[in-house]
Design goal:
heterodimer; A: mainly alpha; B: mainly alpha; 6 helices
Chain lengths: 126, 138
């Protein structure tokens, strides 16, 4: 592993964690409303109700933090490396879905997660 | 709720959203490269860096691209299931290293491509789903 890769991976983990928190808050806010169906008017009303929920603003705040850290990452790492390593958010989201949202995560998903972890490990050594 | 099958029109939209996502990250990278990244070890150096990046037009073009991707993605998801859309959208895991090599002059080794393939297979497994109940928000 090249010098600095560990720190870059740490920063990528940080953006992924912020992304995950962002998704969890958004999902939990969306879950508190009934999903819209059909026309654009109903969807617009749904989005309007959604942005009034404070959790959506927390989610938005985390996506801004995530963007700022991502810019630090891009200033120091190859895009081809950083974007691939950012796939670790799939790992975080699956773990958080299982333990925070109490969703069922299938065997195939866990298998996919193992593949992603192997992939990130390989690119970290290049 | 059963949604419509993948049509050529939706596929074109999906490829377009992949290209837009790639463009977003190329623009962000370009924006980040406008600033000197060395010696960011204090908060004020970090803020100076961010201030510089946020005053770069590349970053704002990138954000416009994010907004466009979001709108197209929402339109796609109103037509097909997330479990169909995500595996096709993960084409950007190939597109980004490819365009990094082409437009940013990065060298992408065979070893790195192997890692990318592993990630791609992983993302496929994670996102492919037949049950609507298993579909979660991206």
């Amino acid at each position: 592993m090249k010098e600095g890769v560990v720190f870059t991976l740490f920063l990528i983990a940080l953006t992924s964690a912020c992304d995950t928190i962002n998704q969890l808050f958004l999902k939990s806010a969306i879950n508190s409303l009934t999903a819209p169906s059909g026309n654009i008017l109903k969807i617009a009303k749904f989005i309007f109700k959604l942005i009034l929920i404070p959790r959506v603003w927390i989610s938005f705040l985390f996506s801004i933090i995530s963007l700022c850290i991502w810019l630090f990452v891009l200033s120091r790492a190859d895009l081809s490396f950083a974007f691939s390593a950012d796939s670790m958010h799939y790992v975080f989201i699956a773990v958080a879905s299982r333990f925070v949202l109490k969703e069922r995560v299938s065997f195939r998903r866990w298998l996919g997660i193992v593949f992603i972890i192997i992939g990130i490990t390989i690119i970290s050594f290049t | 709720m059963i949604k419509k099958r993948l049509t050529l029109k939706i596929l074109i939209f999906l490829i377009f959203s992949d290209i837009l996502e790639t463009l977003t990250h190329l623009l962000f990278k370009k924006g980040a490269l406008t600033q000197d990244h060395l010696d960011i070890n204090t908060v004020s150096a970090g803020l100076t860096f961010l201030g510089g990046v946020f005053s770069s037009p590349f970053l704002w073009l990138g954000l416009v691209s994010v907004l466009c991707t979001f709108i197209i993605w929402s339109a796609i998801l109103s037509k097909i299931d997330l479990s169909v859309a995500v595996p096709i959208a993960s084409f950007s895991y190939i597109l980004i290293p490819l365009s990094s090599a082409l437009f940013l002059g990065e060298s992408v080794s065979l070893f790195r491509w192997i890692g990318v393939i592993f990630i791609l297979v992983g993302v496929f497994f994670v996102s492919l789903s037949t049950k609507e109940s298993e579909v979660s928000l991206r």
